[in-house]
Specification:
Layout: H1 20-37, H2 42-58, H3 73-82, E1 93-97, H4 105-111, E2 119-123, H5 127-140, E3 144-147, H6 151-154, E4 164-167, H7 173-184, E5 189-194, H8 198-205, E6 209-217, E7 225-234, H9 239-242, H10 245-251
Parallel strand pairs: 1-2, 1-4, 2-3, 4-5
Antiparallel strand pairs: 5-7, 6-7
């Protein structure tokens, strides 16, 4: 009797998957790393724990994050979001374009829950993701308001008092400038996490916008940068579309 060939059925090995206990251990270690990197209060940690548990549960029904990032959810998504607070420390009311699974907006809301007057507006056009965000806000007690609409529609009549606007993995910087402009001319600061291609995005955006911004090094990825934009003005060739800052402010237009 011949031994089984290399390509026979006996050579087929089942795929090896990590046991749930191993995945839980990996996530616990990642949680520890994230909270050491960006410490938060016990109350905020408890809210984030509830958020993560709900996200992983709903991930089975709706694709909220890339499966490959689940083991590093705390550093890749939670800590990456939390670091934005230090870049706009006085902001109490935020707007987050394209909130998706809640990054960074729902995380910011969890961290700001004990701050008087804090509120985070989560702008998400996907009805399924908007429903998840509402569920997460209720489960965590975070001061978040969900707007199931496009960012362009949201800024047509934005809530009063928005002091900071953010967006993560939402659009190139040139598009973010157009979306955020109505908020920046009323005094908001823009805080946009970007990857290694930030220089190219700034160059492209500068074709239509005069931008005053600084770049902060990401604490979760030393190769990434966060654009902190405090002044934004359309160049002459597109002022007919947006109007100058002085003209819009004089007219009281958002």
């Amino acid at each position: 009797m011949k031994p089984p060939g290399r390509h026979g059925r006996e050579a087929i090995r089942p795929a090896v998957s990590r046991a749930p206990t191993d995945r839980a251990a990996d996530l616990a270690k990642d949680r520890e790393r994230a909270l050491a990197l960006i410490p938060v209060s016990r109350e905020t940690t408890a809210r984030l724990d509830r958020f993560v548990a709900l996200l992983l549960e709903r991930q089975q029904q709706i694709n909220l994050i890339a499966p490959s990032t689940e083991p590093v959810l705390w550093t890749r998504h939670i800590a990456d979001s939390l670091q934005l607070l230090a870049l706009a420390p006085d902001a109490r009311i935020w707007a987050d374009f394209g909130s998706g699974a809640g990054f960074p907006g729902l995380v910011l809301a969890c961290a700001l829950a004990e701050t008087p007057g804090a509120q985070v507006h989560l702008v998400e056009r996907s009805t399924k993701k908007a429903a998840f965000l509402r569920e997460a806000a209720e489960a965590t007690g975070a001061p978040a308001v969900v707007h199931a609409e496009r960012a362009a529609d949201f800024v047509n009549a934005p809530p009063v008092g928005i002091a900071a606007v953010t967006a993560r993995a939402f659009a190139p910087l040139a598009e973010l400038c157009a979306a955020a402009y109505p908020l920046l001319i009323t005094g908001a600061v823009a805080v946009f996490p970007k990857g290694q291609a930030v220089a190219a995005e700034l160059t492209e955006a500068a074709k239509n916008w005069k931008i005053q911004a600084t770049l902060a090094v990401s604490r979760t990825d030393p190769q990434a940068r966060i654009v902190v934009m405090r002044s934004l003005e359309p160049l002459a060739d597109i002022k007919t579309r947006y109007g100058s800052t002085a003209e819009r402010q004089k007219a009281g237009s958002p």
